[in-house]
Amino acid sequence: MKNLEWDAGRGWWVADSAVLVEQVLSHPALRVRPLAEPVPAAIAGGCAGQVFGALVRMNDGERHIAPKLALQRALAVSAAGDAARQRAHTVAAHLLAEGRSIGAWAFEAPVATVASLLGFADEQLPAVARWMGDFVACLSPLSSAEQIEQAHAASLRLLAAMRELLQAAPQDSLAASVAQEAAAAGWRNDHAILANLVGLLSQTYEATAGLLGNSLVAIQQGAASVDAGALVAHVMATDPPIINTRRFAAERCAVGGVTVEAGQAILVMLGAAKRGFGHGRHACPGQQLAQQIAAGCIEALRSKPLPQLTWTYRASVNARIPEFHQ
Ligand code: HEM
Fold it and tell me: What Rg do the C-alpha atoms of the chain give, in angstroms?
């Protein structure tokens, strides 16, 4: 069996097979953040850092277990049946009718759909999508100082919008469902609940735009699937939008045939291992929802002929997201 390999140039271990990826993502000593830097230094201290620091995606242990359970249960309700796909279809068709370019639409339609499922009114969706674009721009190691400033401002607005939403969220909305499941799971931290509602939008934003975009690329290259759901599942397996993640050793541990020292990082090649939604305790709880949203968006696009598309990939260390020029 293959072992983890040391990349001397980058100074981290690499897991690039399904077995290694599963071992790394299941190991209790391998954490989502370095112990010494729970929030990236570039955003720590500001509002975006306060959101980041509360996300289930960025925490292990107590700050992960109950919140994860609550989000998982609420997202399962939201993804049940055909409602999310239909909502995506409606939201996406509306944006097309308003004249969005394909490039702008592929980013806006998925996040606007999740905002709509959360309970935001139709007229709030463009602003929420715009703030989220500003927020996620700070999450990359490639972010500029100006993007980080905008992200702090967007985080403030998003937290305020979530607070307001929760006070009057429709009973059948995703936000109300998260609040209910949070109470049932004994998760009582109000800031963390608001931050994780924002997190549902940020987890959606680039990854689902990437899934939708890679599906459009597949259509452009002749993918024949009539059923949009089958096409999206195929793209998830062959050209997934999230291609890697990282883990950090909280203590010295044996994994993948080697000894990883405390503080060392591991690059986890999700795409190569065909684990585009992750694996183990941090596996994506939005996977059904994401695929339904991408399928609903593609169905909305079928009402008019697709223009000849050209694209380049967004600069990213972990994702493969086409940006269309049309
Ligand atoms: C195609 C779209 C998506 C892809 C490829 C994707 C992929 C992933 C991956 C790989 C992880 C785990 C990261 C890691 O372990 O380091 C993850 C976590 C997560 N995703 Fe997704 N995701 C997508 C869409 C969504 C959507 C639509 C939602 C919710 C609305 C969502 C919510 C989450 C949450 C809350 C986590 C954190 C789970 C945890 O840490 O326990 N994702 N996603």
Answer: 19
